[in-house]
Amino acid sequence: MRTEEKIICNCCKKVIRDQNFPFGTEYLHVEKEWGYFSNKDGERQEFDLCESCYDTLIRKFQIPVASQEIIELL
Ligand SMILES: [Zn+2]
């Protein structure tokens, strides 16, 4: 979740970024506008997860996340 000063992990409440660490830890931000064929028609939801909670979440997946190494071109 986001306030004006902070990004907080919705799952564990850890502060992911604040004014002291504006470029700190990596995290996952999800925004979703649910449409007509959902039970949340017209609802917009968003959340943030720290890397640790993201790892815990994807460990539950039946199919692993697609992953590839990024080669930095400097
Ligand atoms: Zn977390």
Describe the fold and architecture:
With 74 residues, the protein is an alpha+beta fold. The chain has one domain (7-58). 11% of the residues lie in helices and 26% in strands. The chain is built from 1 helix and 4 strands, in the order ββββα. The strands form 2 sheets. It has a two-stranded antiparallel ribbon with strand order 1-2. A two-stranded antiparallel sheet has the order 3-4. Strand 1 (7-8) and strand 2 (15-17) form a beta hairpin. The mean pLDDT is 92. Zinc ion binds at residues 9, 11-12, 14, 49-50, 52-53.
Provide a short characterization of the protein structure:
The chain is α+β, with helices and mostly antiparallel strands.
Q: What share of residues is helical?
A: 10-25%
Q: What ions, cofactors and ligands are bound?
A: zinc ion
Strand order of the largest sheet: 1-2
What's the tally of helices?
Answer: 1
Described by strand count, sense and barrel closure, the largest sheet is: 2 strands, antiparallel
Order of helices and strands: EEEEH
Low-confidence stretches: none
What is the global morphology? extended
- Gyration radius, rounded: 15 Å
Oligomer: single chain
Rounded mean pLDDT score: 92
State the distance separating the first and last CA atoms: 33 Å
Structural class of the secondary elements?
alpha+beta
- What is the number of domains? 1
Into which percentage range does the β-strand content fall? Answer: 25-35%
DSSP strand count: 4
Draw up the topology in text:
Layout: E1 7-8, E2 15-17, E3 27-33, E4 44-50, H1 51-58
Antiparallel strand pairs: 1-2, 3-4
